[in-house]
Write a structure and sequence with these properties.
6 helices; 162 residues; mainly alpha; 77% helix
Length: 162
């Protein structure tokens, strides 16, 4: 009788521990799902901020408020930070902008440019202007397409902790 009673008590304890372990596993699964949802929302919010910046840059390029070479550098670099399904293969989808970026990306800018010899600075200006004038129409069309593409994706997402 004592052995049976001990076996029943042991079975109840094991059943209780197994139930508690199952409960903890279920809680862990819920926590991982919630973390994944937060991660996805954070990516979407980051992408929305990036797309807002790209939209402003596209408008500046379309309206001629900034050099196309500067726009190509900024847009190309900013779009490199997009994550998830909205990620763009810039070289493939926007070849003219990409080509101008690859031409001017290694040219010094700002103070570095001012420190160059005048002849070298003029040569770089000539190369940049030639590339800009050759690719101008194609780049503006690409900027219009990119602006249309990022406009609907530019939805600000408010993240709240649950």
């Amino acid at each position: 009788m004592n052995v049976t009673l001990l076996a029943i008590a042991g079975g109840v304890i094991i059943l209780g521990l197994a139930s508690y372990a199952g409960y903890l596993l279920l809680q862990l699964k819920k926590q991982k799902e919630l973390q994944e949802q937060h991660k996805q929302l954070a990516i979407e919010k980051r992408n929305a901020n990036i797309f807002e910046s790209v939209s402003v840059l596209c408008l500046a390029g379309i309206q001629g408020q900034c050099d196309l070479s500067e726009i190509s550098i900024r847009v190309y670099n900013i779009m490199d930070y997009v994550q998830g399904e909205e990620r763009v293969d810039f070289d493939k989808e926007y070849p003219a902008t990409s080509e101008l970026f690859h031409i001017v990306k290694d040219m010094p800018r700002g103070d570095e440019r001012q420190n160059l010899a005048k002849k070298e600075r003029m040569q770089q200006n000539l190369a940049r202007h030639k590339a800009e004038s050759r690719l101008q129409d194609a780049i503006i069309e690409e900027l219009k397409l990119l602006h249309k593409k990022v406009q609907p994706l530019n939805n600000q997402i408010n993240i709240q902790m649950i």
